[in-house]
Design goal:
Blueprint (H helix, E strand, L loop, with lengths): L2 H9 L12 H6 L10 E4 L7 H7 L3 E6 L2 H10 L5 E4 L4 E5 L2 E5 L13 E6 L8 H14 L5 E8 L14 H8 L3 E10 L5 H5 L6 E9 L5
Parallel strand pairs: 1-2, 1-6, 2-5, 6-7
Antiparallel strand pairs: 3-4, 4-5, 7-9, 8-9
Length: 222
């Protein structure tokens, strides 16, 4: 799945992946991280997610990365912010009200970009990627996060034969395969949610679960 796919989705306003409401799992489970106010939270593939507003309202600094300039500009416009803008070779930096979004490719991030990050909120990143990209995504994320970082991860789990994605199905066993060597994994909830997402049913999915994980990276990694 190439970057042009996602850029075209934004250009055509085909953004069914966007949630207009604050994610309930974020509100319910974020406290399990016991993160100090003022800590920096990384939101990969952030789009125009309003979850970033919620995190900021809890007293955190928010760092996002998003490929689409349309998505970034729409986020700030819809929420009444006029961001400071800095152009650079790798990323265009938009910042306002303690929310900073880097415009560019997630895979161009390095350790310096995430040096102050304490936690990651991943609701729509891992599930946005096909199987052949998820291992690369996790490997890169682990390579640039500070040791002992925490991740609140939300995944969809359904029969991939029933729907092609995105969002893609990411099972509990796959999360274990991707992260267990580098992190402590806690599955904090596993919920049947097909009734909440009629578009999945319309696309042929007969059973749908959402899994919520809390990951804590080891102090010494990679």
């Amino acid at each position: 799945m190439e970057k042009d796919y996602w850029l075209e989705r934004w250009e055509q306003e085909e953004i069914g992946f966007h949630q207009s409401d604050i994610n309930p799992y974020l509100c319910q489970y974020w406290k399990e991280l016991h993160l100090s106010q003022g800590s920096e939270v990384f939101v990969p593939l952030c789009g125009k997610s309003r979850d970033m507003l919620w995190l900021r309202e809890q007293g955190y600094m928010v760092l996002g990365v998003e490929l689409s300039a349309i998505g970034i500009q729409t986020f700030f416009k819809e929420n009444g912010f006029t961001p400071n803008y800095i152009h650079s070779e790798k990323f265009n930096r938009y910042e306002a009200n303690s929310i900073c979004i880097l415009g560019g490719n997630f895979f161009d991030l390095d350790k310096k970009d995430l040096a102050k990050v304490s936690a990651v909120y991943d609701r729509a990143s891992l599930v946005a990627l096909p199987l052949d990209m998820r291992e690369s995504y996790v490997s890169h994320l682990l390579g640039i996060l500070p040791p002992a970082s925490q991740i609140l991860l939300v995944t969809f789990d359904y029969s991939q034969s029933e729907m092609s994605g995105p969002p893609f199905s990411v099972s509990v066993s796959e999360v274990d395969e991707l992260y267990s060597e580098h992190a402590k994994i806690c599955l904090v909830a596993r919920l049947d949610v097909l009734e909440r997402y009629p578009r999945f049913h319309e696309r042929g999915v007969s059973k749908l679960q959402e899994n919520i994980f809390l990951l804590t990276l080891h102090n010494k990694r990679m």
